Amino acid sequence: MDTLIAAGATAIWLGILTSISPCPLATNIAAISFIGKRLGSTSRVLGCGVFYTLGRMAAYVALAGLLVAGVLSVPGAANFLQKYMNKLLGPVLIVTGMVLLELIQFNVSASLVGRRVQARAERGGIWGAGLLGVVFALSFCPVSAALFFGSLIALSIRHGSRVLLPSLYGVGTGLPVIVFAVLLALGAQSLAKAFNKLARVECWARWATGGILVIVGVYFCFRYIFCLFPI
Asked: I need a labelling partner for 182 at 20 to 30 A (CA). Which of 26, 53, 145, 221 fits?
């Protein structure tokens, strides 16, 4: 139980860190601001933020759930992971941590949806905000991809969690977006101040998380690959 609670807390933190990373954060604010200006009222801006957040959460939960369920439903893969997951997790965590520390850099972004879907979402008002949340959630930059595929999926597979951990990750990604929707409704000045503060916090949080992932990954390598820490 304690292990699952720790995994759940980790999933929420990974979601928050994903949402406040520079690329997703700028996308979140731009999306809410764009739709909010078109709707023209404070209540609709907040509604837009809520639907946008729910769309992001649904996309992450669905994608993570499908990936984890797909892997765990294949007997050969499930048996392989049960035997070698701890050995594989060490190098995965090290690489993920190095990406967060910017020791490994990729200048590539990818989206699982097309521009036509995004354009349709932008014209859809509050309901379109939910679809836009799905669109932007499935648009990965290097940091968000490392956190999602390198950390959350590995964590979910290790604990056999198809729904719980992906859901908690989705909740984590939604919390900062809701906060920024409220700030946007209150005024642009409040949003600008919060953005500047959060940018500094994100840098430290990302580096701390990256360092922890590297340390844990090294420990997993020593323990499960080289068998130096049997206890």
From this structure: 145
